[in-house]
Write a structure and sequence with these properties.
By secondary structure, this protein is α/β, with parallel strands linked by helices. The chain has 5 helices and 7 strands; from the N terminus they run ββαββαβαβαβα. The chain has one domain: Rossmann fold. The protein has a 7-stranded mixed β-sheet with strand order 1-3-4-2-5-6-7, with helices on both faces. The chain starts with 5 loop residues before the first strand and ends with a helix. The structure holds guanosine-5'-triphosphate (GTP) and magnesium ion (MG). The site of guanosine-5'-triphosphate has 24 residues, from helix 1.
Length: 193
């Protein structure tokens, strides 16, 4: 995929603000701080188009990035961040649930999970939620640069087993640090457009 343009169109908190036009969308889901925004930047070869942070809770709104005037990445706030109040968490849940379950142009959710550790209970809940609603799901096992290559396959297997991954759902080893897996991730995404 040759990225010729990438622009933030809107940071939305409610459906009236979502872009019109019906272009395909891919939403990023995952634990807070797992690397959703970094994934977007690496895929687009842009250093800081999507804002990242070493502190969890950076992304707070649904951020729509228009790519090549042709499709969107939607950066989504992460789950599992302990320092968020109950009220905020409930509002977050509604915003994301509304988007994920009612959005016609949504082609697939890109679920980002950390290769270093087994998926958390929240990761399993998110995957089950997506399966329950029949939302197509692509797993990105990220931060591969933090795991010795000799252990990659073992960790991928743990991810698959812990999520009870549907064998039809793609899983891609990835690193936003080195760019490993970028071409494979693009070809998987393109097959969902
Ligand atoms: P929230 O917006 O808070 O939900 O977080 P996020 O999922 O968007 O994470 P973000 O992309 O901001 O990355 C969090 C931290 O992890 C940053 O310090 C990144 O530099 C780091 N990071 C993300 N991906 C990778 C990776 O593949 N390898 C390494 N080594 N670090 C990564
Ligand atoms: Mg983010």
């Amino acid at each position: 995929m040759k990225v010729t343009s990438a622009d933030i169109i809107i940071s939305a908190v409610k459906p009236e603000q979502y872009p019109e036009g019906g272009l395909p969308e891919f939403a990023l889901a995952g634990r807070s701080n797992v690397g959703k925004s970094s994934f977007i930047n690496k895929m687009l070869n842009r250093k800081s188009l999507a804002r990242t942070s070493s502190k969890p809770g950076k992304t707070q709104t649904l951020n729509f990035f228009l790519i090549n005037e042709n499709f969107y990445f939607v950066d989504v706030p992460g789950y599992g961040y302990a320092k968020v109040s109950k009220t905020e968490r409930a509002a977050w849940g509604r915003m994301i649930e509304t988007y994920l379950t009612n959005r016609e142009p949504l082609k697939a959710v890109v679920l980002i999970v950390d290769l270093r550790h087994p998926p958390t209970a929240d990761d399993v809940m998110m995957y089950d939620f997506l399966k329950h609603y029949g939302i197509p799901c692509i797993i990105i096992n990220t931060k591969a640069d933090k795991v010795p290559k000799s252990k990659w396959q073992k960790h991928v297997k743990i991810t698959k087993e812990t999520l009870n991954l549907d064998p039809n759902d793609p899983i891609v080893l990835f690193s936003s640090d080195t760019g490993y897996g970028r071409d494979e991730a693009w070809s998987v995404l393109q097959s969902y457009m």
